[in-house]
Amino acid sequence: MLTTPVWLRWVGAIVALFFPFINAPIEEIMYRGYAQPKFAEGFGKPWAGIVIPSIGFGLQHCMLAASWQGALVYIGAFFFWGLGSALIFHYHQRLFPIIIAHFVVNLAFAAMPLVLLMLDVY
């Protein structure tokens, strides 16, 4: 059985700690802050700005799945997350609460693997 070098665990831990801080603002600024208004303006319809970036958000996250069946679930789940976030942004025109919610979800998904990694459970 292969063992993971200690330095590699620490690199993984550092990446997992910084990921939520970087990923959440970048994705929300890109999808809701930039793409949503551009598509709504380009098509002249608010629904285009809500739906099209949500499809992209879903498709982007399918790479996280371990199988094609999982990819379909991820696409659907992240599409609906994107749709909900897009609706919130459309009605309130505020990105910060969406960034915070995205950050909390990312932290939860980064923290558990980090704890397991540092406890040598994998």
Automatic annotation (TrEMBL):
UniProt domain CAAX prenyl protease 2/Lysostaphin resistance protein A-like: residue ranges: 13-107
Alphabetically ordered keywords of this record: Hydrolase, Membrane, Metalloprotease, Protease, Transmembrane, Transmembrane helix
Gene Ontology terms, MF aspect: metallopeptidase activity
Transmembrane parts of this sequence: 6-26, 72-91, 98-119
Classification via InterPro entries: Rce1/LyrA-like_dom
Pfam families linked: Rce1-like (PF02517)
Superkingdom of origin organism: Bacteria
Family (UniProt): Belongs to the UPF0177 family.
Protein name per the record: CPBP family intramembrane metalloprotease
Organism listed in the record: Ruoffia tabacinasalis
Lineage: Bacteria, Bacillati, Bacillota, Bacilli, Lactobacillales
